[in-house]
Amino acid sequence: MFMKHAPRTDDGGASCAAALAALDFLRRHGGGLCDLLGLLAEETAFDALCELHAQSGALLPDACVVQRGLRQIHAALAAQETCAIDALSVRKGYCVDTSVRWYGARVSDLLGAFR
């Protein structure tokens, strides 16, 4: 089939590059993020992570889907309450807060690349 119009692209492919960088991060650190979201019982963020994982097989991932998923994960991590994280840390025997802050900072950095 022939296309009538060329597909719209962003400013020099910045969104596509940001999406690819996010998916590369998730290939390297997605397992830990998956464990953390499961530990925090964040179903919405976990579903967003699954959507991002589905994008990882695409040659050109959908930048809007990737950005939306990262925003959902970031919001879930930012909404964590300190007292709940502290109690979870005591039960699990390690500092969950450190993981929440590290993943939150990385996801924030990845979101910054979309702007």
Please tell me about this protein's structure:
- The structure is a single chain.
- Helices cover 73% and strands 0% of the residues.
- It has 115 residues and is mainly alpha-helical.
- The protein has one domain (14-112).
- Helix 1 runs antiparallel to helix 2 (43-55) and helix 3 (63-78) runs antiparallel to helix 5.
- The radius of gyration is 16 Å and the shape is elongated.
- The N and C termini lie far apart (34 Å).
Write the layout of secondary structure elements.
Elements: H1 14-40, H2 43-55, H3 63-78, H4 82-92, H5 96-112
Q: What are the defining features of this structure?
A:
single chain, 115 residues, mainly alpha, 5 helices, 73% helix, 0% strand, elongated
Characterize this entry briefly.
Helix content is 73%, strand content 0%.
Could you name the ranges where pLDDT drops below 50 across 5 or more consecutive residues? Answer: none
If you compute it from the alpha carbons, what radius of gyration comes out, rounded to the nearest whole angstrom? 16 Å
Number of strands: 0
Helix content: over 70%
Shape: elongated
Distance between the termini: 34 Å
What is the helix/strand order? Answer: HHHHH
Overall domain count: 1
Strand content: under 5%
Oligomer: single chain
Largest sheet: none
> What's the total helix number?
5
Average predicted confidence as pLDDT: 88
Structural class comes to: mainly alpha
